[in-house]
């Protein structure tokens, strides 16, 4: 049996607990790891990242088979999980460690992400400008084990976290279709 072709995508969009499930459920996803990226400290802990002194943001690193699901499809799923108009956090999660960022691994990923962001901005779906940044990938550090697969280990708490700020966001920001 042939080994599948793999690629990686890194997205930050608020609490990483809420970012795992939507990607983990897609065909072609090999793994979704919660972790930290974009900062200046090696191997940061959750407590260090929460102190807002490391420069890291909570993110997910997705390993996928691009013959089954494309990077462009992953970017479209990403937009559905975040508030792309809020540079200072996501929903009830506030601060730089929750900022929305697409971390790109190549010029091709940058082009795809930028084109998607441009389409979203032109769509008129939001009342405010799209402020999600697109940045070069930095070292990614997996979060502690208790953060991995949180939605499976703690389904009730995950549901509370996931839905906590999204209803209010939709009411305030989304124009609908």
UniProtKB/TrEMBL annotation:
- Kindly identify the residues recorded as the active site: 15
Q: Which GO MF term does the entry hold, naming one? A: peptide-methionine (S)-S-oxide reductase activity
Q: List keywords of the entry alphabetically.
A: Oxidoreductase
- The EC number of this protein is 1.8.4.11
InterPro entries on file = Met_Sox_Rdtase_MsrA_dom, Met_Sox_Rdtase_MsrA_sf
Q: Does the keyword Oxidoreductase apply?
A: yes
| Reaction(s) catalysed (UniProt annotation) | [thioredoxin]-disulfide + L-methionine + H2O = L-methionine (S)-S-oxide + [thioredoxin]-dithiol; L-methionyl-[protein] + [thioredoxin]-disulfide + H2O = L-methionyl-(S)-S-oxide-[protein] + [thioredoxin]-dithiol
Annotated Peptide methionine sulphoxide reductase MsrA domain ranges read 8-159
Top enzyme class, one word, equals: oxidoreductase
Cite the NCBIfam families for this sequence: msrA
Q: Could you say which protein family the record assigns here?
A: Belongs to the MsrA Met sulfoxide reductase family.
Q: What does this protein do?
A: Has an important function as a repair enzyme for proteins that have been inactivated by oxidation. Catalyzes the reversible oxidation-reduction of methionine sulfoxide in proteins to methionine.
From the Swiss-Prot or TrEMBL record, give the protein name.
Answer: Peptide methionine sulfoxide reductase MsrA
Please name the source species. Answer: Limosilactobacillus equigenerosi DSM 18793 = JCM 14505
Q: The organism's lineage?
A: Bacteria, Bacillati, Bacillota, Bacilli, Lactobacillales
């Amino acid at each position: 049996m042939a080994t599948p072709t793999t690629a990686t995508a890194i997205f930050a969009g608020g609490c990483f607990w809420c970012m795992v499930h939507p990607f983990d459920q897609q065909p072609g996803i090999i793994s979704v790891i919660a972790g930290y990226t974009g900062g200046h400290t090696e191997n940061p802990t959750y407590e260090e990242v929460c102190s807002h002194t490391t420069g890291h943001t909570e993110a997910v690193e997705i390993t996928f088979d691009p013959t089954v699901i494309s990077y462009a499809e992953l970017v479209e799923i990403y937009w559905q999980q975040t508030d792309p108009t809020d540079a200072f956090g996501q929903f009830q999660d506030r601060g730089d460690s929750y900022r929305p960022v697409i971390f790109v691994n190549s010029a091709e990923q940058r082009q795809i992400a930028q084109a998607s962001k441009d389409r979203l901005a032109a769509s008129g779906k939001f009342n405010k400008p799209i402020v999600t940044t697109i940045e070069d990938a930095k070292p990614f550090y997996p979060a502690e084990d208790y953060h991995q697969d949180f939605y499976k280990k703690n389904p009730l708490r995950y549901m509370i976290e996931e839905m906590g700020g999204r209803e209010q966001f939709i009411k305030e920001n989304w124009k609908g279709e």
